[in-house]
Structure formats: structure tokens, C-alpha cells
Amino acid sequence: MLTNAPRGTKDVLPNQIDNWIFIENKIRNICKRYGYEEIRTPIFEHTELFQRGIGEGTDVVDKEMYTFQDRGGRSITLRPENTASVVRAYLQNKLFADKSLVKLFYTGSMFRYDRPQAGRLRQFHQFGVEALGEENPAVDAEVIILAVDFLKSLGLNDLKLKINTVGCPKCRPVYRQKLQHFFSDKLDELCQDCQTRFNKNPLRILDCKTDSNKEFMADAPKIKDCLCDDCREHFLKVQELLNAADVDFVVDERLVRGLDYYTKTAFEIQYQPLGAQSAVAGGGRYDGLIEEIGGSPTPAVGFAAGIERILVALDLQGLTHSTDNKLDAFIVAVGSEAEIFAFNLMIKLRREGFNVAMNFAKRSMKAQMKQAGKSNAQYALIIGDDEVKNDVVTLKNLSNSEQETVNVEKLLNTLNKQS
RNA sequence: GCGGUUGUGGUGAAGCGGUUAACACUCCGGAUUGUGGCUCCGGCAUGCAUGGGUUCGAUCCCCAUCAAUCGCCCCA
Question: What's the CA A1/C1' B15 distance, rounded, in angstroms?
Fold first, then answer.
């Protein structure tokens, strides 16, 4: 057990790091272009922040949070998502004072006590964006387009953008009620899960895998028939802007977000080959959250994307990245005097800016040469008694096997010419 | 939280209730004196996720635990 990482956690090993850096670079790059600034919030917060922000009754809050008492008796929770924290930071630091629209992005670890499976971890990483302070649907569109452009810039194909509107506190309750009314006499025809959804979140019944193809579903009330004027116009405007920007999307009336704070626009980007965990990014507008957390009413939009899922998707598409850090030279040293000479030379060369390595295991010359060959170095620098005596090194070009004996000055010249 | 499948060395893996746990790759060593990439030779699991149990005997059977994976749920 000692040698096993806790369930649902993963080491990112050196051979994977280049993929992460590739993604992180794309994130910084696109956020800069779109005018989003990076923010880093604590990895844990007061439990109450998430309870209030995400909402009691949601799965995330009810059964997926890593919550514990710290030594001072406070209830602390490892963040299951970052929107609530960003909003908290926005309020605490009065970022709203600087400008009316504050645009932020983040990346980092999130924690959810879920049953792990492919693309679902207990510690996972999200990249997300939050635009706080503007109700204009153009911001919804901007955020969605940013997400799409980001994923495309990674080289992903076959992405599917789904959008919907979930209404606002004015019209959603109306819809909710209509749904409940509609299903009230069909309860016994619904599956177990849907019977609990009936009270908890009737919108989800529409999305149920087992029930959604039942005949009467077609007659279920549609949200678009219940929207208030404001929400309807908002949604149309978002679609208009997406069309204008040449972003393909489908309106999916069954798309419902699991977190309480969403209003109006909801969207999700799927990468189908991922299977059950196909959502690589999801988000929407949350005009009520900031007030819920104690600020003055402030509209906002955002999304989050799952880095690990993106990595799986990249892998499925064969888009792996590696930047091999090629060695300029590998030093082969035989004998204890030569070893010291070689070590000093290695340090000197590194200080000159070269990428140099040597073997510390006192292995045979043959073995060291083998290692030099495998290291992909340009040159092997061979140092034995003779070289030490004459203060020179034998420089062997590993690709054409030519070698010559040179002094350190000449060595620097040759290496410089190469790089 | 529920259900299915799986778990053999650094890796990919074969294997059977009974004793040297195939094979390939990687890795390590060697093929005369200070030289790699090819070739050849040799070495590398007292151990078959962990802990119990059944049995004369278990890596192969049973149970539990842990983990991975797939689906449900949820979501990124």
C-alpha cells in the first residue's frame, strides 16, 4: 500500500510532462489573446463556500466533497471546482472595483470523491475561465468561443458543442412546475432514479438514459415555451453570435447542468470517443452566484475543462508531444583522475550553456560509450589518463564516428558551431 | 454509492492444481589491450496485487481487501 498512490490519484511522470506543458502553453496563449488574466486561489476553502455556492442537494456537495476538520475545528473542503473560489476571491479582493468586467482564468487540481474510471479521477485538473460583471450575451459567446478555439488549437477534431438555456429565477420555476405537473401522473412509469429526480431536479428526467425514449417524453413541456422575454432574447443573441463566429453548435434542450448556480446559458463540449466521460468542457452563466455568496448582484459566465480528459482525447487522436532535450555532449571518463577532470569539465561546459551529461557509476569504457550512443548526444567527450596528462579531450562525433583530440578552447568552439 | 471484467518480472505477455513460471523487448555484463549504434554469448520473477481459507500440494479453486477498467450515477 505504501507504494500505491491513493485511489483516483495519479502521478504525472516525466514522459507525460510535455503533453501537459503543451496544453498549459495553449491555455496561457489563448487566454492572453482573449484578455483573461490568471488567478490562483487556495486549494481548500471553508466548506460553507461550496455548500452555498454549488448548492446543497447537488451530488457534488452531498457526496463528493473532501471535507475535514482542521486543527482549529474549522470545516475545510478541498475544492471540487473553482468557480466558487474565484467568486470568493473576486469579492474578498474587491476586484470589481477595478473595472466592470473582470476576466479571469485558472488551472489547478480539483478534488471529488467519485468512483474513478477512465477520465474520472479523485484529484483531477481543470482549466477554467470566469467573466464577472457583465450580462451581455456577447460575453457568453466569447467564453464559449474561447473554449472551442482552445480545444481546436490542441488539434482535437470531432468536438460537439451543445448549448441550452436553463432560464433564470423568474422563468425556471415556472418550467419546473410545468414539468412536475406533466410527470405527476406518470411517476410509476419512470425509473427509480427519475422518481427521486422528480423532486430534486425534474429537468434531469428529460436526460434520463432509460426514460428519455418513452413515448410521452415527446409531449413533455419544452423550456423554450416557458422562458421569460429576457432569457429568450439572451439565448437567441448567443446563438446569433456563435453563428456569426462560424462556431458549430446544436441546441440540446435536455442539456442541464448539475450545479445549482447556472442561469440562462448552459453549454458543454463533448468528445464522443471518450465514452461515458465524454464532456471535456462545460459551463454557462451564473448570474445568481455572486449574490448568493454575499456580493451585490453581479452577472457572470464561465466554463471549466478537464485536463485529463483532454489528454485522453489527444492520445486517442495520436497527438502526443515530446520535446527531447538533446544533449550536446556525453562525457566518457575512465579512471579516478579522469573522473575529476571530467566532472570539472562537465560543470564548466554547463556553465557555458551546454547540455552535458556523464556517467557516475564507474562503468567500463565500453558501457559508457554505449550510454553515450543511447543518449543521443552529438558528441562523446572521451577522457582517460592520456587526456588528463595533456589537458585535452578526445572529441568524437557520434553520428559519423570521426574523432580528434582537442584542447578545451577548441572544444568550446566546436560545440558552439554545432549549437 | 451500485453492477460487470481484470490484476503474472522494468514492459508486452504465455502458463498449469504438483514443483527450472515460456517467449519477446528493455536493462546489466561479456566477445584480449581505452571507444557506441549491427551481430553473438550470458544474467535478471525463491515469485505470479495483498491477506486469509480449501487441499498432501495453489500463481492457477474459494473469500476478503486493495487497485485498474467498463457501465450506472454524476460530471470536467
Answer: 28
**Which nucleotide has the least CA–C1' distance to A334?**
B34
Given a contact cutoff of 8 angstroms between Cβ atoms, the answer to whether A326 and A355 are in contact is: yes
Q: For residue range A342-355, list pLDDT tens digits in order.
A: 999 999 999 999 99
Q: Please, which positions of strand B sit below 7 A from a protein CB?
A: 1-3, 27-31, 34-37, 66-76
ipTM attached to this prediction = 0.83
Sheet holding A123-132, edge to edge: A37-38, A102-111, A123-132, A300-306, A279-285, A263-271, A159-165, A250-251
Give the range among A122-131, A144-153, A160-169, A272-281 with minimum mean pLDDT.
A272-281
pLDDT in tens, A60-84: 888 899 999 999 999 999 999 999 9
In the CATH hierarchy, which fold is given to the domain comprising A329-418? Rossmann fold (3.40.50)
How far apart CA A178 and CA A180 sit, in angstroms, is 5
pLDDT at site A177: 86
Q: With pLDDT > 70 as the criterion, what percentage of chain A qualifies?
A: 96
Kindly report the pTM of this predicted structure. 0.90
* Nucleotide nearest the Cα atom of A123 (by C1'): B76
Distance A127 CA to B27 C1' (A): 39
DSSP-derived letter for residue A359 is -
- The closest alpha carbon to A8, from A85, A119, A157, belongs to A119
A14 CA, B9 C1': separation in Å? 23
Domain ranges of chain A: 14-171+227-316, 329-418
The one-letter amino acid at A140 = D
Q: What is the mean pLDDT of residues A4-16?
A: 86
CATH architecture assigned to A14-171+227-316 = 2-Layer Sandwich (3.30)
Dump pLDDT digits (tens) for A209-251. Answer: 666 666 777 778 888 888 999 999 999 999 999 999 999 999 9
| pLDDT average, residue stretch A17-28 | 93
Task: Say how far A358 CA is from B8 C1', in Å.
Answer: 36
Nearest nt to the CA of A63 via C1' is B1
Cα distances (Å, whole numbers) of residue A116 to A111, A113, A208, A416: 12, 9, 22, 51
- A276 closest-nt by C1' vs CA: B71
How far apart (Å, rounded) are the C-alpha atoms in residues A66 and A80? Answer: 8
User: Identical fold at A14-171+227-316 and A329-418?
Assistant: no
Amino acid A298: pLDDT: 96
